[in-house]
Design goal:
The chain has seven helices and ten strands. By secondary structure, it is of the alpha/beta class. It has a five-stranded mixed β-sheet, with helices on both faces. Strands 6-10-9-7-8 form a five-stranded mixed β-sheet, sandwiched between helices. The longest helix has 15 residues.
Length: 273
Amino acid sequence: MSAAPGLTRVLTRYADGRSELSLDPDLRVFVADLVRPYGLPLREDLLAEGVGHAYEELAAGLLAEALGPDEPADVLIQAFDSPDVRPGAPTSLALSRSCAGTPTALALCDQGTAGAFAALRAALAYQRTGVARRAVVVLAEQTALHHLPPEPVTLPDRHCAVVLVCETLPDEELTVRQDSGAVVGTADSVAEEVRRQAKALGEGAAVLLAAGLDVPGLDAVRVPAGQPFTGLWSALADRLPGWRAERRPVLLADFDPRLGVLSTLTLRAGPPS
């Protein structure tokens, strides 16, 4: 029986309201410094009202639920697309103190929806090289942008965090792939590549497609719009236990049109836990 890095847990949590940190005067200073070189105006109304959620508050409790005190993490990678409302120290460092162990803490941003897959690729690389026995990926998004963007952006409907725990599992085969260029140069080529990967998994594969990704002729679960960064992974958290119990292979797919990157995850699950 072979063993390889796999997903042992995927948990998700939504939150309403706001963090008190959204009224921290340093938030205005921080955002103003960020946008000044680009001449972008602040959203003074949002800064005065206090909106948005701190990622540490969103994810800390979820991390404690995902990992017990006797399950130390070796690597923690936080990925996000919409900015945090906590100015100052990186949230990944704060989150590394919310789980057992003393994990190396990293953060990844500005890669659109491809960022979640890139973070998972990095976590798996740490495991495969033997650096990490247990790697944790934290995905987060919150609803507020405290400045006007240079072009339209899609913000989430709700604050949300997702925690993915990567450990070695028997008979697990987990692959994360990211393609750009000629492979996904048109909408038709994107759809064809997703269909090809789904077919390679065989009959009975469960396919989960991100909102906005259209693959005609493919029997798939389509994630509703509203959570551009975490929605796909929240859906995986809800459905993976059932798919794993049925021993169904799984394909996740998302396409970021701004970056021109197709990201996929294929999972051939081992025995149900």
